[in-house]
Structures are given as structure tokens and as C-alpha cells.
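note to self — DONT lose this again. spent like an hour looking for the file last time. sequence + predicted structure for the chain T wanted, 338 res
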Amino acid sequence: MAQVISDEHESEYQVAPPTGNAAPAPSRALATLSAYGEGEAYVGALDRRSLRKTPGLYIRAWRRFRSNRVAMAALIVLLLIVVFVLSAGLISRYVTGFTPQENHLADKLKPPMTDGYILGSDGNGRDILTRLAYGGRVSIMIAVLSGLATFFIGGAIGLVSGYRGGLTDTLLMRLVDVLLSIPGLPLLILIASLYSPGPVGLAFVLAAVSWPGIARIVRGEVLALRGREYVDAARTLGASGPRIVLRHILPNILPLMIVYISLIIPGLILAETGLSFLGIGVQVPTPSWGNMLGDAQQFFRTNATNVVIPGLMIYLTSLTMYLVGNGLRDALDPKLSE
């Protein structure tokens, strides 16, 4: 019976012998299968090429950010401010000819564009333009360094707390609650008064007060993501906890963390300015926008430019950073579509 079925199966695909001088024809079935395979391979190659050409998250975010005219204008102004403060040494050598600590008491409180003082001089005869560039470098450096420290400290604590849960989550979140319940400015004044930190130390003091906010936000996002299907699949395949956090959870909350840090950096600039204005931040003779305001307050009635110029730089820097942060928030929002 099996032999009969086999014979019938073979006879079904048997090719008829050629007649006359005609060449033997190839099997239609084999030709059809070959053409089908080549077509599938071609379509697969096209799909792979199209996937490579598909813009990723950050490219699409940049396109959305670029279409936001307010955010782009703020970014351009912010870049000009950064270039200005980074060029402080060149401004001191080739533009003003003064160092930030150099004082000429005979030339104090000179108005702008007088005797070589482009923006005037302060109460000690120091060039305002030179000190503005060097002071901006210090103020922005403190804010950015503090923002980065806040990013890593608060982000790490939020990731650990949200993923581990249990007793670890309880202890870390109670610590966050305690720090959030303490008024930030009095705590900063107390710490700065006790230890009198330099610029780098002041940056970490600000970060020590600022990290609980981002830790709580990151913890909430991790709690929402750790029960997703792709996290369960990675855990089933044997992925370790650190690998799941770094490879599967962190990339999904990284845009949120970037937006949060971009929005708190202006507040850090204002915090440093306030502490320096009160005399417990960056100490003279090291210039900063805050202690420039503090030195100029007694001359406000006779020489208002000493107050207006550093105050305007603080305002422009904080405003542009805030607008850029808003643009990043809108550009990185996954709910938006092009």
C-alpha cells in the first residue's frame, strides 16, 4: 500500500520526456518557488532599508524642537550667553584690558563708555564687563554642576527605590519626605553659613537640597514600568536586576529626567545668586552675578547700571533656560506626533 502511494506521488511530479528537438523544460514548481523566495528577500531588504531610514526618538524630538520658534530663539540667546562667559579670558585680554580682581579706586563708579570702561566700573573701581564675564562663568558652572549632581543622585535613588520596592523603597521615600518638608532656602543658608564652601562645594550643597524632587518623580515612573511585558520577558530570560534597570527601564525615563533637569537649572542659578547676594555664597574677590548685585546695592541710587547689568544677565539666562526646557518637554513628549 505504501509503495503504491509513493509511486503515485512520484508520478505526479514526473516530467514528460522531450519530443523532437525541443530542449528539456525546467520544473514550473521549482521556478515558482525560486521567484517567490527572491521576491521575499527583496521585500525584506526594502523593509530593513526603510527601518534604517526611520528617524529615532531624538531625531524626531529635534525636528519638533526646531519647529518651536520661541524655544529656538531662546536657545540661540542662551548659546550667545555661554559663548560670552566662556570667552572671559579673551575679553579680559583683548577687549577691556582689565582682570576681574584689578581695582582702581580713583575710577570707581564710572558710567558706561567712560575712560575705557565699556560697561562702567563698580564701587571698588573694577571693570564691570570683565567681572560680568567671569562671574557668569562661575554662576553657570555652579548651576550646571549642581544640576548634573542632582541628576545622578536623585535618578539613582529613584531607580533603586522604584525597582526594589519593599523596605528599601519605604526607607528612601521617608528620607525624601523629610527633606522635602524642610524649607530649602533656610537649609541652604544654614549649611553655607557653617561650612563657607567654594564654588564647587556650593554646587554640591545645592544638589544635596535639590535631589529629592527628581528622586520622587523617577520612582513613580519606575513603578509604572517595572510591571510591563518587556520587563517581565527580560526577567524570565534571566536578566539581572541592574541589567533590567539600565537597559530596559532607564532609556524610557531618560527624556523625562533630561527635561526635569533643564527646568530646575534656572532655579539653581537663582539659588546661587541669592546666597551670594546674602554674602554666604561665592565670596569676593571671586566674581559671580550674585555678589556683584550684593556689592552694587549700596550704590543703587547713584549708579543704577551696576545693579541693572548683572540683574539683566541673571534674568536673561534664567528665562532662556526655562524656555529651552519647555521646548524640550514638548519635543520629547511621546504623545506628540509629527
